[in-house]
Amino acid sequence: MNVLLIGSGGREHALALALSKSPRLGKLFAAPGNPGIGTLAECVSVDVTDHDAVIAFCRLMGIGFVVVGPEAPLVAGLVDDLDAAGIAAFGPGKLAAQLEGSKGFTKDLARDFDIPTAAYGRFADKSAALAYLDAHPAPIVVKADGLAAGKGVIVAMSDAEAREAVETIFSGAFGEAGAEIVIEEFMEGEEASFFALCDGNKALAFASAQDHKRVGEGDTGPNTGGMGAYSPAPVMSDEMSARVMAEIIEPTLRGMIARGAPYKGVLFAGLMLTKDGPKLIEFNARFGDPETQVMLPRLEEDLLPLLMQCAQGNLRSQKVALSPRTALTVVYAAPGYPENPQKGSIIRGVEKAAALEGVMVFHAGTRQQGADLVANGGRVLNVTGLGASVKEARDRAYAGIDVIDWPEGFYRRDIGWRALG
Ligand code: AMP
Ligand code: GLY
User: Fold this and answer.
1) How much distance in Å is there from the Cα of 289 to the middle of ligand 2?
2) With 70 as the cut, is the pLDDT of residue 150 above it?
């Protein structure tokens, strides 16, 4: 079976590595891919926003299955168009991808299907939003409704900050994504990421992870896409995972059937583990980045048939085979990330790091420039360590970081602090 992987980040490099191990794989293509993915797949420059071009490419190359990494093509309906062309694809269709694409859609679903989440209001009008703030003092959370690359959420610790957030979003700072806003109750607890594979009707727990969203050590500074992660999340015990499946994932699948948009693909629940139990912060309609770079190295079975079962509607119920070992990844980022990442600096020593025992290096924002590997994005490399404990995984990841020669790059030194206690 020839497979086309869509995307170019560290998540897709980890997916490419797992897919490339499948005995069922014929040839792997990636659009657009990156230099790391290029060691495992043929990278092609098909324009993924041109769905007809993607379909034509699949026909030309005899591609039987498409794996979509990022959210934008899902929200744009790529999977619907591939389905209509008779090409199986992993990921939700456009309507189901609203679970990520519209926070208001998800909040209404949670209300209608008793899914535990923060109390909220939904507003298309500034004066109504400000009136809601009058009745609900800080701390409170203000969110742009649509996709805002992780930047559309303001956790306001004061009333003034909350009012300013409403003004900023309605002034058009997030474009279309801010045409509506959601204001919600501030929840307290530990955060965790939980992933379930879904085939429209059934869900199968995949794995858990914890991310580090802030750019700076000690969880300080602006939010990012994620500066490091580990899997499993020690707080996600078997009992907690079972609760999340029963209280959040399964009601969501039932709700999506009732909404006429059965959910297939991977459902990524951002959770707050509050004193009243797990509550949903948000859903993503895709694998996490960098969570995938710590979940897939623990997978002890073939990924390809699992993803295909999601698309075909025949997902098995037998548990996913995951190593009990811990994987921890450290994001090596370009100077200026997240505000203004500087491109072009030269990175050396990646192969040396990847040759260390228990170390994998996933490329994210890299580019090959002649003989040199150069930074070409914000999050540039993910150095993953796999070990018998969080500490061993962490030590291996940082040993990998140490042999990479990239004076301009930076990373957090405290990835895993929560799990290490
Ligand atoms: P989101 O993009 O919705 O995942 O939000 C980004 C971050 O904002 C989350 O990872 C949380 O740290 C924080 N956050 C979002 N919603 C809430 C909430 N209702 N209460 C507390 N923190 C929140
Ligand atoms: N690491 C968070 C995300 O993928 O959205």
Assistant:
1) 5
2) no
